[in-house]
Amino acid sequence: MKSWVKAATAIVLSTVATLGMAETAAEAKAMLAEANALVASKGLSAAATEFNAGGKWKRGTAYVVLVGFDGGTMLAHSDNPKMTGKAMIEARDAAGKAFVQETITNVKASGESAVEIRWSNPTTKKIDNGHLVARRVAGQDAYVGVAGFWE
Length: 151
Hints:
This protein has about 150 residues and is an alpha+beta fold. The protein has a single domain, classed as PAS domain (Beta-Lactamase, 2-Layer Sandwich), CATH 3.30.450. Helices cover about 35% and strands about 25% of the residues. α2 packs across α3.
Protein backbone atom coordinates (compact mmCIF):
# COMPACT_ATOMS: atom_id res chain seq x y z
CA MET A 1 0.00 0.00 0.00
CA LYS A 2 1.32 3.44 -0.86
CA SER A 3 2.51 5.56 2.03
CA TRP A 4 0.00 8.36 1.36
CA VAL A 5 -2.88 5.85 1.62
CA LYS A 6 -1.47 4.55 4.91
CA ALA A 7 -1.14 8.10 6.22
CA ALA A 8 -4.68 9.01 5.16
CA THR A 9 -6.05 5.84 6.77
CA ALA A 10 -4.22 6.64 10.02
CA ILE A 11 -5.63 10.19 10.06
CA VAL A 12 -9.19 8.96 9.46
CA LEU A 13 -8.94 6.28 12.16
CA SER A 14 -7.47 8.77 14.63
CA THR A 15 -10.23 11.29 13.93
CA VAL A 16 -12.97 8.69 14.34
CA ALA A 17 -11.49 7.47 17.63
CA THR A 18 -11.24 11.02 18.98
CA LEU A 19 -14.84 11.82 18.07
CA GLY A 20 -16.00 8.85 20.16
CA MET A 21 -14.33 10.05 23.37
CA ALA A 22 -15.54 12.48 26.01
CA GLU A 23 -12.41 14.52 26.61
CA THR A 24 -14.00 17.87 27.41
CA ALA A 25 -16.84 19.03 29.65
CA ALA A 26 -18.88 19.87 26.53
CA GLU A 27 -18.44 16.32 25.16
CA ALA A 28 -19.41 14.84 28.53
CA LYS A 29 -22.53 17.02 28.64
CA ALA A 30 -23.43 15.95 25.10
CA MET A 31 -23.01 12.32 26.17
CA LEU A 32 -25.24 13.03 29.18
CA ALA A 33 -27.91 14.55 26.91
CA GLU A 34 -27.80 11.44 24.68
CA ALA A 35 -28.12 9.13 27.69
CA ASN A 36 -30.97 11.20 29.14
CA ALA A 37 -32.79 11.10 25.79
CA LEU A 38 -32.46 7.31 25.70
CA VAL A 39 -33.96 6.99 29.20
CA ALA A 40 -36.80 9.34 28.21
CA SER A 41 -37.58 7.39 25.05
CA LYS A 42 -37.09 3.79 26.25
CA GLY A 43 -37.63 3.93 30.01
CA LEU A 44 -35.33 3.02 32.90
CA SER A 45 -35.18 -0.73 32.35
CA ALA A 46 -34.47 -0.73 28.60
CA ALA A 47 -31.98 2.13 28.94
CA ALA A 48 -30.21 0.32 31.80
CA THR A 49 -29.80 -2.74 29.57
CA GLU A 50 -28.22 -0.62 26.82
CA PHE A 51 -25.96 1.24 29.25
CA ASN A 52 -24.77 -2.01 30.83
CA ALA A 53 -23.81 -3.30 27.38
CA GLY A 54 -21.17 -0.53 27.19
CA GLY A 55 -20.55 0.22 23.53
CA LYS A 56 -21.15 3.87 22.75
CA TRP A 57 -21.94 4.51 26.43
CA LYS A 58 -18.26 4.25 27.30
CA ARG A 59 -16.01 6.78 25.57
CA GLY A 60 -12.40 7.13 26.58
CA THR A 61 -12.45 7.48 30.35
CA ALA A 62 -16.10 8.64 30.39
CA TYR A 63 -18.97 6.26 31.10
CA VAL A 64 -22.69 6.40 31.87
CA VAL A 65 -24.31 5.49 35.18
CA LEU A 66 -27.97 5.27 36.12
CA VAL A 67 -28.65 5.59 39.85
CA GLY A 68 -31.87 5.36 41.89
CA PHE A 69 -32.35 7.78 44.77
CA ASP A 70 -33.43 5.00 47.15
CA GLY A 71 -30.12 3.90 48.67
CA GLY A 72 -28.19 5.21 45.68
CA THR A 73 -28.88 1.90 43.94
CA MET A 74 -26.79 1.46 40.81
CA LEU A 75 -29.28 0.67 38.05
CA ALA A 76 -26.66 0.67 35.28
CA HIS A 77 -22.92 1.19 34.88
CA SER A 78 -21.53 1.18 31.33
CA ASP A 79 -17.93 0.65 32.48
CA ASN A 80 -18.62 -2.05 35.08
CA PRO A 81 -22.05 -3.73 34.83
CA LYS A 82 -21.19 -5.85 37.90
CA MET A 83 -21.96 -2.71 39.94
CA THR A 84 -25.65 -3.01 39.00
CA GLY A 85 -27.85 -3.55 42.03
CA LYS A 86 -25.32 -2.26 44.56
CA ALA A 87 -26.32 0.42 47.10
CA MET A 88 -23.86 3.27 46.55
CA ILE A 89 -25.25 5.91 48.93
CA GLU A 90 -22.25 5.53 51.26
CA ALA A 91 -19.64 5.39 48.46
CA ARG A 92 -16.78 7.82 48.98
CA ASP A 93 -14.03 9.01 46.69
CA ALA A 94 -10.33 8.97 47.62
CA ALA A 95 -10.74 12.25 49.52
CA GLY A 96 -13.68 10.92 51.55
CA LYS A 97 -16.43 12.79 49.66
CA ALA A 98 -19.81 11.00 49.60
CA PHE A 99 -20.22 11.81 45.91
CA VAL A 100 -23.34 9.72 45.20
CA GLN A 101 -25.14 11.27 48.17
CA GLU A 102 -24.02 14.76 47.06
CA THR A 103 -25.18 14.09 43.50
CA ILE A 104 -28.60 12.91 44.67
CA THR A 105 -28.98 15.99 46.89
CA ASN A 106 -28.01 18.32 44.02
CA VAL A 107 -30.24 16.59 41.47
CA LYS A 108 -33.23 16.65 43.84
CA ALA A 109 -32.71 20.38 44.46
CA SER A 110 -32.03 21.65 40.94
CA GLY A 111 -32.45 18.79 38.49
CA GLU A 112 -28.73 18.74 37.68
CA SER A 113 -25.39 18.18 39.37
CA ALA A 114 -21.67 18.55 38.70
CA VAL A 115 -19.43 17.01 41.35
CA GLU A 116 -15.65 16.86 41.38
CA ILE A 117 -14.31 13.50 42.57
CA ARG A 118 -10.90 12.04 43.40
CA TRP A 119 -10.84 8.70 41.65
CA SER A 120 -8.51 6.22 40.00
CA ASN A 121 -7.81 7.35 36.46
CA PRO A 122 -7.89 4.26 34.24
CA THR A 123 -5.30 5.80 31.90
CA THR A 124 -2.67 6.74 34.48
CA LYS A 125 -3.68 4.21 37.17
CA LYS A 126 -3.30 7.03 39.73
CA ILE A 127 -5.77 8.95 41.87
CA ASP A 128 -6.77 12.00 39.85
CA ASN A 129 -9.39 14.76 39.65
CA GLY A 130 -12.48 13.32 38.00
CA HIS A 131 -15.98 14.56 37.32
CA LEU A 132 -19.54 13.36 37.64
CA VAL A 133 -22.23 15.31 35.79
CA ALA A 134 -25.82 14.19 36.25
CA ARG A 135 -29.39 15.03 35.41
CA ARG A 136 -32.61 13.86 37.02
CA VAL A 137 -34.65 11.39 35.01
CA ALA A 138 -37.99 13.11 34.37
CA GLY A 139 -40.77 11.67 36.52
CA GLN A 140 -38.43 9.23 38.29
CA ASP A 141 -36.48 9.10 41.53
CA ALA A 142 -33.25 8.49 39.63
CA TYR A 143 -30.45 10.27 37.85
CA VAL A 144 -28.44 9.52 34.75
CA GLY A 145 -24.83 10.61 34.91
CA VAL A 146 -21.53 10.65 33.09
CA ALA A 147 -18.39 10.08 35.12
CA GLY A 148 -14.82 10.36 33.93
CA PHE A 149 -11.73 12.46 33.43
CA TRP A 150 -11.81 15.42 31.06
CA GLU A 151 -10.58 18.98 30.83
